[in-house]
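Forwarding these from the shared drive since the link keeps breaking.
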Amino acid sequence: MIKRASNDHPIHELLAKRWSPYAFDGRPVPKADLLSLFEAARWAASSYNEQPWSYIVATKEEPAEFEKLLSCLVEGNQGWAKAAPVLAIGVASLHFKLNGKPNKAAIHDLGLAACSLTFEATARGLAVHQMIGILPERARELYAIPQGYEAVTGIAIGYAGDPNQLPDHLKQRDLAPRTRKPLGDFLFGGTWGSPSSWARVIP
């Protein structure tokens, strides 16, 4: 299943095709593809080239490790994410290695790495669903994440599955069209909340 964006202006086809399914079909992700996803994350931009991201990864090929990571998601996310063949937790280092000062860009840069990973996944016919609904302190305890690092997001990786296998409320989300705010709602000029003049151009 592909849910293409109904974009107002031309964008790259991979961005138009990218979406976050709840339904996964469980097919294993080839190791070569999975390594390429994290290679893409590796080459993301970051402030001072700090590369403040780390990932904890588990696949269904190691059931105990998969269940361990699954337990770090909130209950509502466990229900659908357990069908994905790969789960990960994105972790940010909150301080610069050079001087120990707070890195205000750390979470932003973790997001850039995740975006690169997602773009690569889409190019390979894979789907990625990121989630903020995780249990950071459980992840810290189970994986001995040190202080100064924060588990920020969960990630499900695999192939989009059949929405009809989902509970009704999630099925409707998977089947619903993708929607976004118009550019004028977030591109400002002059004063905050005032749409930029060039953002009001009709496509």
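-- next protein --
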Amino acid sequence: MRRSRGFRNKTRNILKKTGKRLTITEKLKTFEIGDSVIIKLEPSKQDGMPHPRYHGTYGKVSEKRGRGYVVDIKDKKMPKKLISAPEHMKKVTEGL
């Protein structure tokens, strides 16, 4: 039988829950356009999750799209846009 290589393949350590629950304030986070954020995946919330390869990357919020946000990142030298729910992002106080 062929091996399954789904969306969460090889993410045992990245998406390991550390004993804390997702609070209502984390679900209702808001970001302004131009805010610096880091992609930190929340394993208990699957919808709105960017690909696990982008866990830990920095970027800037460029627009709001529905309940999620569009984040501009650089993957090596290539600029990319990720669509992410606010649970999977954390605001960075220092600049990039």
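The beta strands are 36-39, 58-65, 68-75, 78-84, 89-91. The longest helix spans residues 24-27.

- D.
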